[in-house]
Amino acid sequence: GDSVITVELTEEDKVEDDVVFYLVFTGSTVQHCTSTRKINPGSLETISPGHDCCETVKVALCASREGHPVLVVAEESFQFVQDEAYDAAQFLATCAGNQQALNFTRFLDRSRPPAADVDFLDEKVALAFRHLKLPAEWNVLGADQSLTENIPRETLMHFAVRLGLLRLTWFLLQQPGGRGALSIHNNEGATPVSLALERGYQKLHQLLTEEEAKEPDSWSTLSHTVHSGDYSVKHHRGLDVYMLTAEA
């Protein structure tokens, strides 16, 4: 989800300015309807929805005009795929309290990927996390809430801070257990806050210590979502398009 989609209209579909185009994505359990913006008379732009599973869905391009019935202009298939970022987010979400798995992730730190790769990883994994269906009881510290803060252990927050993943750290901070993870020491005696300071991650340290710290620049800062029962409406400010998602 959250990729830019461009729709090229054929000559006969180029119509008057008062016609509004929508894309309707119909999956097995969820349906999305997105508004579009006109780039020029023959091209439209919108944002792809974050879907609930990997499958091929039907996409209909619909045209609406006041006082007239909605027309289906064209239909096509669209495939949602499971990529490495989705796999990584699922792995991390599942291993929230698993010490063996979290210690295993530390080998990534030794390889020290280039800054551009870290930024790409941060954006993709944070985005995938936002589209995961996390259980209601999910917690950054794992399922075993009987563990006290005094027990040294590795957390997802240590992982995100160690690699300098700003957006993922922000996402985890908003989740249950996110703030609590900041004061937990690992076996080396480091908290996520002290790790950020030790590594010279100034923006990250600011994010963890300032009460009014703002979300790092990413796609999510450009969008605002309102949930209501089985429906959600998302406004993408960058393109000024809206997306209605409904569970079928």
TrEMBL record:
One of its GO terms (biological process) is positive regulation of canonical NF-kappaB signal transduction. It comes from the Eukaryota. GO terms for molecular function: MAP-kinase scaffold activity. SUPFAM superfamilies: Ankyrin repeat (SSF48403). GO terms for cellular component: actin cytoskeleton; membrane. This is AKP13 protein. The gene is Akap13_1.
